[in-house]
Structures are given as C-alpha cells and as structure tokens.
Amino acid sequence: MAEKNWHVGSTLPIAVQAVVCLGSAVAPARAFALSDSFAPPGKLDPNLVWEVLIGGIVVCAFLAAIALWIHSSLRRTKRLQLRRNAFVSSAMNNLNQGVVMTDAQRRIMFCNDRYLDIYGLARSDLWTGMTGYDILELRRQRGVLAVSDDDFYEKAASPNGLITELPDGRAILVKYFVLPNGGSVATHLDVSDQRKLSRQLASTKQFLETVLDHVPACVAAKNIEDGRYIFANSAYERFWGFSRDHAVGKNARELFAPISAASIEAADKAALNSPDGQFRNEFEVDRAGERRMVASIRIVVRDESNKPEFLMLVFEDITDRRSLSQELESTKKFLELVVDNIPVALIVEQVKDGRYLLANRSAETILNRRREEATGLTASDIFNPKEAKLIIARDEAAIKKRGMITEEHPISTKDGLRLFLTRRATVLSDAGEPQYLIKTHEDVTDRRQTESRMAHMAYHDGLTDLPNRAAFLQALTQMIEACEGASEEFAVLCLDLDGLKEVNDVFGHALGDKLLIEVAQRLQDSARGGVVARLSGDEFGLIIDGKQPEAGLALAQQLGEAVAQEFQIDGRAVRAGVTTGMSIFPHNGADGASLLANAGAALFRAKQKSRGTIGLYQPEMDQQIRDRRVLHQDLSKAIKNGELSLAFQPQGIARHSVAESEIIGFEALARWQHPVRGQVSPAEFIPIAEESGLIVEMGEWILREACREAASWPKPLQVAVNLSPAQFMHGDVVGLVHSILIETGLAPGRLELEITEGVLIEDFDRGLALLRRLKALGVRISMDDFGSGYSSLSYLQAFPFDKIKIDRAFIMNLGRNPQSAAIVRAVIDLGHGLEMSIIAEGVETLDQLVFLAKEGCDGVQGYLLGKPLPIGKYAGLVGRAETMELALKTG
Hints:
It contains 33 helices and 31 strands. It is of the alpha+beta class.
C-alpha cells in the first residue's frame, strides 16, 4: 500500500533518487579521468573508455526509466480524472431537472441529458463552442421558447424564476445563477404536476367561496386568539355596508359601535366557554345609527387534533320576522357547517355534466336518500325517468336564463305531499359561462295553508261562510265573460232580510247571528245552484241564469216563501221575510258593479213600496250620468294605481289562409281592469278620456309601454299605437315620441303611429306640420278608419301616409253586399296608386281573408288572426321561448 501511494502521489522523491543515482554513476568516471590527467598525451586508456561508455549507457537507461515512469503517472492521473468526470456526469445526468453550465464567455461547459429530454433536443444538436444564446435560439427554432433572450435571463435570475409553457402543456420552472468566476448555472424543473395541483386547489377554493357567497345568511370567521376577522361572505358585506377587505384583519371594536362590539364580544366569549363549543342568541346591533335585531349562532371549529382553530359565526337580520329562527348544527368541516344549517334544502349542481356536487341535510327530504349517497350522481340516477326528465328540463331553463327562476310545486316526501318553493340560480364562471346551478327548496306547506285560510276569510263571510261582496263581484265578472257574445241572460238579486233588527232587539244578537246562519242555509238550498253571497249585515246577493225576467222572478218568489217559514232557534219560534231587488244582464248593466248597484236601487225602491215585495230595475237617465261621473273619477286614478294594461292584436300579411299569413307586427290596445267593476270596455272609457283630456296622460303611458315592450322582442316586428287628436292639440307630441324612442331604445322604423282625420280637422296646417316632423323621426304614419270620414281623400293628397287602414265597417259587409266589395277594391287600388300599403281591420272569416288576398291587400288584422291579448300569449310570435309546464316534482 505504501508503494502504491508513492507511485500515485510521490513523484518528487523519485526524481531526487534518480538524480542521486545519476551522480553516483558519473562520479567514479570523472574521478578516474582526473587521476590520469597527467598521462602521456596521445595515448587513450581503454579502461577509461569502457567506464565512460558503461556510465553513459547506465545514464541513458536511467533517463529512459524516468521517462517511462512519468508517462505512466500521467496516464494514471488522466484515467483518474476521466473516472471523476464520468462520475460527475453520471450524477448530473440522473438529476430530475435539467442543468446547463457556462463559463465567463457564456460558452456551454456542461449540459445534462435531462435538459435535452425536456426540450426534445439531442447531443448531436450541440457543437463545440456553443454559447447560451445559441442554445436559446435553437430552442426558439424548435418552438419551445417564446421569450426574448433578455427577458429569459432577467426573469430566470429573479427569485421566483421563469415559468415556460411548452406546446404539449408542460410547465418548466427555470432559475439562473451567476457564479463568482463569471460563469453561470441554469436549472430547468418540470413543475406541470405542481401547477395542476395549484389550479385544482384554486378551483376548489373558488367553488367554496362561490357557494358561501350565495348563502343568504351572513357568514364570517375570526381568530380565537385575537378576535380578528379572517373571512366574510357577500351577505355579511350587504348587511354591514362595507367590504370584506375592510373587515378582514380587524376586530369588533375596530369595526362597530361600542354597544354592538360589546354584544359581539360577549357572544364570542359565551361560545368559547360553552361546553359543546356552540352558542345561540339574539341581540341588537347598531348599523349606521339604525337598531337591528339579529339571531346568531357561533361555533368553535376544531382541527383534526380536536384543538380550537377558529370561531365561525352565522347570523341573519330578524328585525321584521323575529318569530322565525334558524337552527344551525355543528359539523367537522367549515363548508358543511354553513351549508347544513341553512333552513332550506340546498343542492349545488355542476352545469357541464349535471352531477350533484353538494347537498345539505335538508336536501335529503327531497332526494329521499342521504346526501353522501347523492354526491356525484345526476337527476337521472336519483329519480325515476319521468321525474328526471322534468327536473332536467327545469334546470336547463334556469341555466339558459342565467338568472333566478322561482316556482312552487308539490313534492312527495316521507311526510306525504308537501308544497315547496324552489329557486334556481345560475353561477357564472370568470369567462361568463354557466358553471354551477344552485337550487334551494323551501317547505311552504304550512305558510300556504295559512294564506289559503286568510284568502278564504278575505272572500267569505265569517259568520255564514258564504262568499262576501268581493267574491260576489268576481263571480259576476266571470258570469259576464261567459255570457258575452252568447246572447244569454242572467239576473242579479239583492235580498234584504226583514225582521232581523227586531230579533236582535228582542232575543239578542247571538240569536240574530244564528238566524242569519239559518237564512243563509235556506237561501243556498233554494238557489238551485246559483251563487249566493252575504253582501252586508242583513243583505244577500244571488245570481240566477235562465230566461229573464221570468227565471229571476220565480226564484225571488221561491226564496221569499222559503224564508217566510218559521225558524226554530234555541227552542224559540222566529219569523222573518225578505224584500228583493233584481237587475238583468245585459239589459241593466254590462259589468258586475253596475248590475249590483242597479239591483240595489231596485231593492231600495221595493222597500220603499212595501216589505216582502220584488222590485225590477228600471233604467233612468240620471243614474247613467252618475255612473259616468264615477267612471271618470276612477279613470283619473287608473294610471297612477296601475290598473291600465296593454293588449296586442297581431297584424299579418294577407294570404289565402291563416297559416300563410305571416305576422309582421302588433297593434297596442289599452285595457282597464277596474278594481270593482272588473274589465271596463274601451268603448266606455276611451270616449270619457278624450272628453276630459285624460287621453293625453293615458296616451303617453300607452306609447311608452308599447315602445318598451316592442324593444324587448327578439324579432324586430312593428308595433302600432293610436294617437288621439287631443295629443296633437296639447303638448309637444313630436318631442314626446322622440324622447320615448331614445328612452326605450326602439328603432323608429318599427313604430307605426295611427291617426284619424280628426288630427287634421281641428287645425289642418298645424296637424300637417306635426305629421311631417314625426315622419322625419323615421316613424311610420298610418291613417286609421279610412273611409269613415268625409275628407279622407283630401288628406291623402296633402300628406304621404305610409299605410291606410280600411275601416272594419266595410270589411264586415264583404260577401253581404257588392258595394262593400267595390269600395274595398277601390281603396286598395287607390292606396297602391299612391304607393301606400293597405291593411284591413276586422277580418273575422276565411272568406274575407281570401277576398283581400286576391285583391292584393297588403295586410290584415282581426279576430281571424288573433284577439287582443297580453303579449305573453304571443310569446312564440315575438321570438320568446315557450313557457314550460311545471310538474309535480322537481330536482
């Protein structure tokens, strides 16, 4: 071993020994030569020659041995260095990250295999003297580098390094280090898995925050050590009126008034001291100077080691409904704790595949299984095919709407059929696409039963359980609608109970109430299925159909006889009678209020004449005037009270069949739903509005609502609106139309203003100027009821109308007399000659439609195409989706 170490590591002693040996060999020869230096010249000693020769040979051999030894030592050193280099290279090539080393001149000194593997390079792609810039350019050519050299070195040298995205989706983290000698080392690490995990964590966090932000209760969390807030949801922000960023990191005393902070800290302390780590209470807080009552629950959330980690609190504002309380239960995880304590069933569904991601305990009633079993399943997996199909259809409708959809429907549960209020809300991703569907189901069975009882009480008499006056008026309205256009009659009877006051005075009100109950029963038994109602204390109302007045008089006589029979109440014999007033539809009134008022007037006259008699209503002019005044007063309040609405009647192209008559627009028509009279005919209130000047305010409302509605239609159909002559005489009608078009966003070309010749009769020059200004706005002008006035032709000459509407009086007589057909044919030819389109009103038969199409009429309007109805009835025609039928079960 000593000899080996010497050969390997002791080259200096060997050289010294060689010099010593060489000196020993040469010294005798030199000494011999010196001793014989006085030999005779010219004679060379042979021994000396041999000694010199032998000594030279020895020296040469020794020098050769030294040379061989030096060569061997160099070879061993080189092999050792190669082994060391191979070891280092092997170690570097087996690293999990790529390594590139350069010298001070940026020349590549080393590049391991992992680097080449990451970027799809080969050793043959590298060359001697290659620099760092060269290899970056090579990567750029291969499509695995998308930044400049300066950006690469600047970002890679930063503490966070540079993330390079490769075309195959991998992410490479590059870090660059400069060495003290001027060289550099760059590492390249594949961080694709870490990035994927990071995105998954971010997605999970976003999902949790999204769910919590859509929880209607206020949710927050705070550190136990210092009481500082670490989380707050959107409901918390809305309640307090400041952002969660303002709250996070602060404690209660830094955020709230002293009284509120003290209450909050007391509740926190009670929760921390509670044996089970929960505390519920109700207390007042000061919110911007306003006292609010909140109900809260605080839970100490523990970690896996059962050590307190943070304090979670959930609260809601119960100022307006303190009787309602929220019961919250404790769970291990923060999200489950919040969701499970929502007092409604909550289900979160993933939009892309319809799988349930989250369900709280309350949802188990809907799902009929534990929530853990429902997670990951779809509606098709949980419900039967019929129910699943309906649930999926509702879900898709909510997702398509991208908003809140609310509906009520019964659901079968273990407790039987219950009524649920279901809300569906779509949650959008950052890209604006539907990502989650949140569904809540609230059991409103008891609430609706209470509301049903209250509604029954609102429309029924509390003593006799008969319908009251409001219900009687509704029944009248329905009866009128059923009889309209059918040439049918019915009678309205008002009965006054005679003798009730005497019974109350003699026997007391308790017995009088029992008498009323007995009378109500006899009236119902004798009414032969007619509607019976208690209108006031001793007044009853009835509706009877049949031939009038015979049927009404016969029933009144029968009712009088039934009530006249003796009553036995509490062992006492009681007698009573009735006096009756009667009105007949349609002769004595076209609406419920009028019929009832006229029957009451007949009753009043009958009582004046004699008790127990029957009075028939007789029309009187003063009564009509009073009714008209009352109608005018009610009409002045109708707009403010929201009683007016719009109906839309379709207008189509004249074809030989209804199916071929493509809808091109609608005419907007005003409707009045009187709170007492019910539906008031436009023939009644429009003339009153025009005479009183109310038509100006009403016309503005109609125009604005019609334009607003038309602007919301997916299809760019036209909308026609009538303008009254009063609107031209009062106010700036042009400015009004212009402002409404701007306000609603309706394209001017889609608005058609219909006028009658009355606009031009009052002030021809002013009316003509206004029409020209209106047309300059881009709207279309139509002459309505053409042919009904005496100067219609002269107005056609004065103003280029866009459309002429043939009066319905000519259309209804088509086929009855040849004169109407000739007039219609002439108007069509006249309009086309003036380059105006023609539309016919009042088209109600197929023969009329065929005639108009044959004669070249451009458009038609009438009951044949459609009645004036709310626009929702024509949703399909204006391009809106059909309303989906609701089922008995939901997801």
